[in-house]
Amino acid sequence: MAIERTFSIIKPDAVAKNHIGAIYNRFETAGLKIIASKMIHLSKEQAEGFYAEHSERPFFGALVAFMTSGPIMVQTLEGENAVLAHREILGATNPAEAAEGTIRADFAESIDENAAHGSDSVASAEREVAYFFSADELCARTR
Ligand code: RTP
Ligand code: MG
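Above: inputs. Below: predicted complex with ribavirin triphosphate.
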C-alpha cells in the first residue's frame, strides 16, 4: 500500500453548521492523518484559480460564489491510498446519490452545497496541496 497525501476542504456550508469536528473525526476514524490545517476565507480569485478546470462549466459562477460565501477549512491528509480512501468516505458529488454513512450523505444538502472537497487523483492532490500550503507547513507524523 502506498502512503499518499491528499487535499481536503470543509466547505462554507459545513463550517457554518459547526460540522468541522465531526468531519475531522471521519478522517481520523478512516486512518487519515491531518498533517496541515487552517481556516481561510477564499477571495474570488483564489476560488476561480482552485476550480479553474471547471471554468467553462455552467455551474462555475455558482460554485465560486458558494466557495467565497464564508470561511472554509483546508487540510492536507496523509495515509495509505489517501486519495481514494478520502473520496470513499466523502461519497458522491450529489449527496442524494452518496452512499449511506459518507460525509456528503450525512452533512450535505445539495450538489451545489456539498460539505466537503477531496482531490480526485494524486496529480490533483499535489497541485491542490501546493495551492494552499508551503512545504514547511506540512508536518511529519512519524509517531
Ligand atoms: P469537489 O471537486 O468539490 O470535491 O467535487 P467533485 O470532485 O465530487 O465534483 P467536481 O466534478 O469536481 O465538481 C466540483 C463541484 O462543482 C459542483 N458541481 N455542480 N450542478 C452540477 O452538475 C455540478 N457538478 C458539479 C459541485 O458542488 C462539486 O462539488
Ligand atoms: Mg472535483
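Residues 122-132 form the longest helix (11 residues).
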